[in-house]
Amino acid sequence: MRRVAITGLGPVSSIGVGARAFAAALRAGRSGISEISAFDATGFLHRRAGEVTGFAPGDLLERLDPARWGRTSLFAAASARLAVRDSGIDPDRLTGTASGSVFGTTGGESRVVELLTEQVVAAGFPALNPAEVAAVPAERISAAVNAELGLTGECLTLSTACSASNYALGHAYDLVACGEQDHVVAGGADSVARWVHAGFSRLGAVTGLACAPFDRDRSGILTGEGGAALFVESLDSARARGARIYAEVLGYGLNCDAEHMVAPNAESIAECMRLAHRNAGISASDVDYICAHGTGTPANDLVEARAVHAVFGAEPPPISSIKSMLGHTMGAASGFGAIAAVLGIAEGFIPPTINFQEPDPALGGIDPVPNVARAARLDVVQNNGFAFGGNNAIAVLGRVA
Amino acid sequence: MIATAERGRGGGVSQVDCSRQGEVLAHELGVISVFGGNARLVSSVGSVLDRTARAASGFGAIAAVLGIAGGFMLRRNNFQEPDPALGGIDPVPNVARAARLDVVQNNGLAFGGNNAIAVLGRVA
């Protein structure tokens, strides 16, 4: 088994594009929330989301023609290109079957589907634009990454919803650790879309002005978007080329509640944490910070806090939610969480939970790192991702000793 | 990709199960270039089922496994005229054929050139 390093980061987010801008925004506790411009939100009770305003894929991409791809695929490809640039590797080294990609998503190219639906409603089936029909399939997300970078190895899109980026990072870890691939770009991508906003609104899960995870008066999520990519290679290869090594992937855990589609299960989530710790070869007491799933719904944050107490005891490590800044970026969410964890390890800080006003006594005394980033030496970070269907995925990241 | 899958086995494939009906020409050329002039028997469950999109190579794998266990090659339905451009492949036209299959290659080729090929064998 090879040790696995993260040497490149490519966030394309509502609070910053590129590792440096994203880290600065996390430290500043910046909000990426704005009035929805992706679609006409008239008639919705709540009309705010975490959009990547001014996303200009043509400025980031080197090979793909943005006109031929959907927004989610462009987020994936742009973030992957940034991660490879950040890694400092010669891109020519990646053009072989030992290099691939694994990307997660929730909604895929929903924006394209909505556009096509509008065309049909307005003028019937003959009005469908064939180029946009071709842009629909979700597998184009990883295909876009491989085409942008010339990767001819693995090309996998995972649709395990809101934990999909942790699934992707875990699979990338397995591929590199076992020698199946030498370089993998792993992460996730999603776009703000009408059906996502409508669906979560009908679930009663969308809030109005700001997402306030772990706050006593938290009232839901805000949908978000972006692309989150991490460049993964073996520790030996990173050292041999003198790369900057942000962190090591220590391991991960996956399980499924196999029960309810939307109600999370604290026992199952606690078991997923234990699986992740065992796989990473660590104890709960080794974890210095938990990058939370932390959606800001009453149910998620309560269940997540209960699971944390079940595993970590009365005094768990600090647990903050970057969804307070980004909104819920769906398939990209645990990818942004992993990037935040890695930056925290490399630069010595914990991102805050912004919009925090009142502690919730029901959460049993957790430390959500309220409102202000905190300097801290982080050796081991746990990154939580939970999805519809009770599909849980947790990654464990560590400082390279 | 076909060559990559073959390397793992060192040859000996009894039947190639094409991923679907109306396979692209590039794929047929791939079969010919890997197996040479003596192209193996190629048939398509896609011709029987019509296209099943994401489940296609799963049905192909089930057909391959049933062929190994039950001793038959599935047929390519709706076959009328050989295509000389395909270099003399045997598509098992229209009638299933009894055969002992020890090793079967199951092709799956996707949009974006995302290729995945499984090799299945009789348990010795």
From TrEMBL, chain A:
<dbReference type="InterPro" id="IPR018201">
    <property type="entry name" value="Ketoacyl_synth_AS"/>
</dbReference>
<protein>
    <recommendedName>
        <fullName>3-oxoacyl-[acyl-carrier-protein] synthase 1</fullName>
        <ecNumber>2.3.1.41</ecNumber>
    </recommendedName>
</protein>
<feature type="domain" description="Ketosynthase family 3 (KS3)">
    <location>
        <begin position="1"/>
        <end position="399"/>
    </location>
</feature>
<comment type="subunit">
    <text>Homodimer.</text>
</comment>
<dbReference type="InterPro" id="IPR000794">
    <property type="entry name" value="Beta-ketoacyl_synthase"/>
</dbReference>
<keyword id="KW-0444">Lipid biosynthesis</keyword>
<dbReference type="InterPro" id="IPR016039">
    <property type="entry name" value="Thiolase-like"/>
</dbReference>
<comment type="similarity">
    <text>Belongs to the thiolase-like superfamily. Beta-ketoacyl-ACP synthases family.</text>
</comment>
<dbReference type="InterPro" id="IPR014030">
    <property type="entry name" value="Ketoacyl_synth_N"/>
</dbReference>
<keyword id="KW-0963">Cytoplasm</keyword>
<dbReference type="Pfam" id="PF02801">
    <property type="entry name" value="Ketoacyl-synt_C"/>
</dbReference>
<keyword id="KW-0443">Lipid metabolism</keyword>
<keyword id="KW-0012">Acyltransferase</keyword>
<keyword id="KW-0276">Fatty acid metabolism</keyword>
<dbReference type="InterPro" id="IPR020841">
    <property type="entry name" value="PKS_Beta-ketoAc_synthase_dom"/>
</dbReference>
<keyword id="KW-0275">Fatty acid biosynthesis</keyword>
<dbReference type="Pfam" id="PF00109">
    <property type="entry name" value="ketoacyl-synt"/>
</dbReference>
<dbReference type="InterPro" id="IPR014031">
    <property type="entry name" value="Ketoacyl_synth_C"/>
</dbReference>
<keyword id="KW-0808">Transferase</keyword>
Automatic annotation (TrEMBL), chain B:
<keyword id="KW-0812">Transmembrane</keyword>
<keyword id="KW-0472">Membrane</keyword>
<keyword id="KW-1133">Transmembrane helix</keyword>
<protein>
    <recommendedName>
        <fullName>Beta-ketoacyl synthase-like protein</fullName>
    </recommendedName>
</protein>
<dbReference type="InterPro" id="IPR016039">
    <property type="entry name" value="Thiolase-like"/>
</dbReference>
<feature type="transmembrane region" description="Helical">
    <location>
        <begin position="55"/>
        <end position="74"/>
    </location>
</feature>
